[in-house]
Amino acid sequence: MPKKSAASRLRLRVLLTPDIALGPGKAELLERVQDTGSISAAGRQMGMSYKRAWDLVDAMNRVFDEPVVLASKGGSGGGGAVLTPFGTRVLARYRRIEQTCAEAAAADLRWLSAHCASP
Amino acid sequence: MPKKSAASRLRLRVLLTPDIALGPGKAELLERVQDTGSISAAGRQMGMSYKRAWDLVDAMNRVFDEPVVLASKGGSGGGGAVLTPFGTRVLARYRRIEQTCAEAAAADLRWLSAHCASP
């Protein structure tokens, strides 16, 4: 049976409500806010507008019972932003879900990869 | 802490290649082909055009080393289609991945749900 070199991977999102999901994009945005201390810089690194990045952060702040990011409206620099301790825990839970699911699904993912046609 | 009645749920897709994923939509389409014996009827039940449904089936038939659906070009009725035994196995693997991931992530999903704001 022909084998594909690339393995099948999971991509998952958590539907927190029917309308609001936490997925790879929002998780990456939180990490980049943590790294850069700025919503605009985090969004820029991901090729999104400040408004888009801010809307995603705002959606997360509203869906949870504590804020995940605290932002200060600033001047020309756009102000600073920090991932809260709660935001750090949310992010860690999401990354752990990704990890545990990848492990739980490993055998089935291998089976699917083994049955993919050669490139 | 306020609890939300709705539990957080996982939505996952398997990236078979960087471009082709098997997710909830394709899985449902395969099930509906199995139930209806028709790609057009399956697509219609999901509100998609025959072309869209056929393109999705075609993508799956190409990405795997065996077809998941066999279709006969028909007349006015659009021909019939069957899920192959291989397609049945692919579908079962996907559903099992969903199930095992939901179980593996249950504690983290409960934590996230418990920290969602009241509606």
How is this fold's topology laid out?
The structure is a homodimer of 119-residue chains.
Chain A: E1 9-15, E2 21-22, H1 24-36, H2 39-45, H3 50-63, E3 69-71, E4 81-83, H4 85-104, H5 106-114
Antiparallel strand pairs in A: 1-2, 3-4
Helix pairs in contact in A: 1-2, 2-3
Return the CATH topology of chain A: Arc Repressor Mutant, subunit A
CATH homologous superfamily (4th level) name of chain A? Winged helix-like DNA-binding domain superfamily/Winged helix DNA-binding domain
**How widely separated are the two ends of chain A?**
13 Å
> Main β-sheet of chain A, in a few words?
2 strands, antiparallel
Q: Round the mean pLDDT of chain A to the nearest integer and report it.
A: 91
Key traits:
homodimer, 119 residues, alpha+beta, Arc Repressor Mutant, subunit A, two-stranded antiparallel sheet, 53% helix, elongated
Describe it for me?
Two copies of one chain form a homodimer. Chain A is of the alpha+beta class and 119 residues long. Chain A has one domain: Arc Repressor Mutant, subunit A (Orthogonal Bundle), CATH 1.10.10.10. The first copy, chain A, is 53% helix and 13% strand. Chain A has five helices and four strands; from the N terminus they run E-E-H-H-H-E-E-H-H. Chain A has helices spanning 24-36, 39-45, 50-63, 85-104, 106-114, and strands at 9-15, 21-22, 69-71, 81-83. In chain A, the strands form two sheets. Chain A has a two-stranded antiparallel sheet. Chain A has a two-stranded antiparallel sheet with strand order 3-4. In chain A, helix 1 packs across helix 2 and helix 2 crosses helix 3 (50-63). Mean pLDDT of chain A is 91; it is low at 1-5. Chain A binds chain B through residues 1-2, 4, 6, 8-18, 21-22, 62-66, 86, 90, 93-94, 96-97, 100-101, 103-105, 108-109, 111-113, 115-119, and chain B through 1-2, 4, 6, 8-18, 21-22, 62-66, 86, 90, 93-94, 96-97, 100-101, 103-105, 108-109, 111-113, 115-119. Strand 1 (9-15) of chain A pairs antiparallel with strand 1 (9-15) of chain B, so a sheet runs across the interface.
